[in-house]
Amino acid sequence: MIITEKSKVVPFEHHDIEEQDLGSLYIPASFSFIIPHLTRLGDTVYYYKSATTKSMINELIGSYLAKRIGLDSVDYEIGRRESDKALFALSKIFFEEGYQYQYAGQFLEEQGYKNGFNMLGNPVKLMLPCYYHLRTLKLYKGTSFYNSCLKLIAVDLKMAQHDRHRKNLQIKIDSRGTIDLAPIYDYGRAYSVNFDLAYGNPFAFIRYTESTLDLLFRRYPDLRDYVFFLNKIDMEEILRTIEREKHIQFTSQEKREYGLEQQNIDSLIDKVRVKRYI
User: Fold this and answer.
1) Sequence-distant (≥ 6) Cβ neighbours of residue 209 within 8 angstroms
2) Reduced to 3 states, what is the DSSP secondary structure of residue 12?
3) CA 184 – CA 120 distance, rounded (Å)
4) What pLDDT does 114 receive?
5) What's the Cα-to-Cα distance from 78 to each of 59, 91, 201, 219, rounded to whole Å?
């Protein structure tokens, strides 16, 4: 990833947030641990995390795909420290007044679904990479929450994301008790089709049996449509758009490697699409 003087890069420094400024951020008490990872850069407060070049590119791709499919997502900015050129993924704080926020895992456990995160059971559960129990999701069919969940699964499938663990997904609840997903974040560990371990890479199962994905598509036709929609977007288009938006350049090697990885991912999904749905 080549950064030039014209690139949209935020000069990074860590500035502690003043106590009197925290109230305007509406950070729930249960998420106060993020405060040391906040910095004010100009007039904007960001949550920051260190990034490699690959994880930074993944974050940008994930944010782009989420927006293309109509999913509420953080919009990552590229932060770079001048002293050593280290990269940081920066995202604006998204908490709003009037909402309760919980990790999806905490919410499920409070609803009595304590076994929804067993990664050793039914592989179809694992195809919902640690977000929610299948039975729980069906309870919300027809709601914005339901559709957002399926869109998120489609994005993670498109990217071979393997880090959507229980703390990488939040829900928000308004004063009427309506549930929806909070803006999505953390796409950094993606584009690793052959990565089997961690929090549930669905491609570990698609590689072994296409029927796993087929079963998920049959149970969730909307998910199938979302996946096929994203499958039409090729990596060249994605990278070209990010280059234009961020005024950066990807190297020939990066374009080649990401193009090959996306081709491997898309071909796995195409096996199911061609055999069963066309």
Assistant:
1) none
2) coil
3) 26
4) 55
5) 10, 9, 26, 39
In the chain, the amino acid numbered 197 is: L
**CA 174 to CA 176: how far, in whole Å?**
5
Closest CA to 171 of 152, 199, 190, 198: 152
Question: Would you state the torsion angle of the CA atoms of residues 174, 179, 182, 184, taken in this order, to the nearest 10 degrees?
Answer: -170
Q: Which pLDDT does position 119 carry in this prediction?
A: 39
> Once rounded to an integer, what is the mean pLDDT over residues 9-31?
88
pLDDT grade, residue 78 (50/70/90)?
Answer: very high
| Residue 182 DSSP one-character state | P
Tokens 């803006």 found at = 183
In terms of DSSP H, where are the helices of the chain? 19-22, 53-68, 104-110, 123-126, 134-138, 144-159, 203-206, 211-219, 221-231, 235-246, 252-276
- Find the mean pLDDT for residues 213-232: 86
pTM above 0.85, yes or no: yes
Q: Say which residue, 227 or 203, is predicted with more confidence.
A: 227
The pLDDT value given to residue 84? 93
How far apart (Å, rounded) are the C-alpha atoms in residues 98 and 101?
A: 10
* Cα–Cα nearest to 150, from 234, 209, 65, 225: 225
Q: What stretch of H or E contains 179?
A: strand 179-181
Q: Of 49, 98, 52, 41, which Cα lies nearest the Cα of 74?
A: 49
